[in-house]
Amino acid sequence: MCAEILNPPPATVHPGLLRRRSVLRGAAVLGGAALLTACGGSGSSPATTNPRGITVKDQRGKTVVFDKPVTRVVTLPMPAASMLIAVDQSAEHLVGMHDASWTAVRDGILGTIFPAALKVTHDVGDQEFVPNVESIVALEPDVVIQWGDRGSGIIAPMENAGLTVLGLSYGTQDDVATWTRLFATMLDKPQRAEAIISNIDDQLGEMTSLGDSRPSTGPSILYFFQITESINVAGSNSYNDSYINLVGGTNPAADVEGPSGIVGVDAEQVLAWDPDIILIGNFDVAMPADVYDDPVWQNLSAVKARRVYKVPLGGYRWDPPGQESPLMWRWLSDIAFPAGKGAALRSQVVTDYQLLYDYQPSDAQLDMILRIDANRESANYRQFDAT
Amino acid sequence: MLREAEPAAAQESGRPARFGGSVVPVATMAVVLVGVTLVALSVGRFPVPFLHVVQVVASHLFGIEGSASAVEGNVVWLVRLPRVVLALLVGGGLGIAGAALQATFRNPLVSPEIIGVSSGASFGGALALLLGLGSLFLVAGAFVFGLAALAILFVLTLDRAGAPMLMVVLGGVVTGSFFSALVALTTYVADPYTTLPAIVFWLLGSVASATFAKVLVAAVPILGGAVVLVLLRWRINVLSLGDEDATALGLRPSPLRWVVLVSTSLIVAGAVAVSGVIGWVGLVIPHLARMWVGPDHRVLLPVSFLMGATYLIVIDTLARTVTAGEIPLGVLTALIGAPAFFVLLRRNRDKIWDSA
User: Fold this and answer.
1) Nearest CA-CA distance, residue A120 and chain B, Å
2) Residues of B in contact with A17 (CB under 8 A)
3) B46, B38 in Cβ contact below 8 A?
4) N or C: which end of chain B has fewer CB within 10 A?
């Protein structure tokens, strides 16, 4: 039995239109995250190095053999670029990435840590991940990373042009582990995969026992995928739902299902749920102040208690599953069950960034990642201030 | 004898007997609309007792304090009311615009989308969303480009004194296609993580993000355009006879037609700006109204407005109450509108247009 944990949609279209992935039901009842730990690499796989070269099997089940470790990689899936950089601890093997990956690098801290990443070509495909085959061929990549679960239309043209393509599936923490192993193997840095994955597993274990030790009915936490023009929240079978349960909170939207886990709801429904805590995701421009100032939300418990928070943005967005997910869990845990001054989050970010990027963020950078400014007016946020 | 039977107002207007016939359907539809509005205000995912709904409305309108809680007040006044009023305006506007266009073009297939204004307005709105501008620009963009589409239509047909119908329809189709391509281009270059979902949602058509500011923005052009159309109801009757007959009756069809087109464009641009493109209302409602009250536009136009308003309020109320997740409005308008239209078409095959 293995739960697949969903992620906010890869977002090329309105969430409601996205494909449905498998369902995570009753995660709260079953102790949510315990399921996560039960998931090893499912199906797809790490790879083996042998005298004849490096063999990897992608998530389509296709086996590829490289003569030597890859040195020129093009990535189309948005989160793949930052993950490749994390595994490689360098941007030098990344020769092309999706434009939206690049804007995340530019706007987040990754561009500061790896200035070379800003110079990487980023016109390799459109927002539907249709590859620009000729510009990719011109980059002479050893391998192209592409979605493997969106039909062959976005892969076949590249393979026909003689490119080597690895297909990925998206959406779960489990997939993150699989990607990490895949990247580490093709770069011939298997120890990187083990280091990153064991760090995630350790923190997951820690969070799971912490979550289990908490009262069964924690604060209700509603995650807004979008709130400005349309209201979209994380329902059941969303990745967000899984971490809300992981830290011991409850998701008021847990009885709402939508394709991909993100569902559009009416403002009135939000008022009826009356969540204790509101999270505003990185897929909307809104900040806590916008919610505090909106007369419609005035009577919400979360607004009255000033418990509206913008989700942090580090090497990648913290909302979907990724290499920085453990930090998201810890952040949410501290938000939901504030322990007062001196939260361990800042030091954990420093520790994890050392592992992921071999980088020591400054206090100002930590403030930026944790969105100290945007969340200044929110309750219990002082716990994340620099000491 | 006869005079005594006529209302005084009708005598003054100098068109006695005819006026009487329009009162009943219009009044009936108005009563239905008021009833539907009240029901819509009373139902939703957040339970508010009917008495409290009345108290909330009364306290805002007349300053009478009731026992409704602050949350209930917000739900009724800030969430439901703007949404219901917006659905009323948009549905009514699209209904009357469709009826006027079908008469002007003398074609039962015409809807506000056909003259290209919807596409133009969509592009304006999508552009504002793409550039991350505020809702003021969203509305302004829809207006500007909706009217730009109309201006292009003007240019395409301007030097033809008669502006034959075929040219206007072709011009509308061409303009519409052009702006549709620009909308596609907008979604193509939009950031898939931030702006694209907002654009796609807006294009789907919804009144979910209603606020009083949007109501105000929609009210001015929609009511303005609707009033002009109602004032022109006589002439639209003449126009629907065809250019030759209209000319014979002493009317200049071309300028009049443009007044109707500008008015409908105003209405459509206003509707699209606040709610995206909501299909079906402009096509189906005029037909339903015509089956009921006949082709006389003095009755048909106001009834189309009231019926469109009622229809969209009902649909939107279903969209927000049936499930916890919101059902897209465009899906429901077609899902409910199409079969209903189909049944009526079967039953009234001979009444649809020929005898009208």
Assistant:
1) 18
2) 200
3) no
4) N
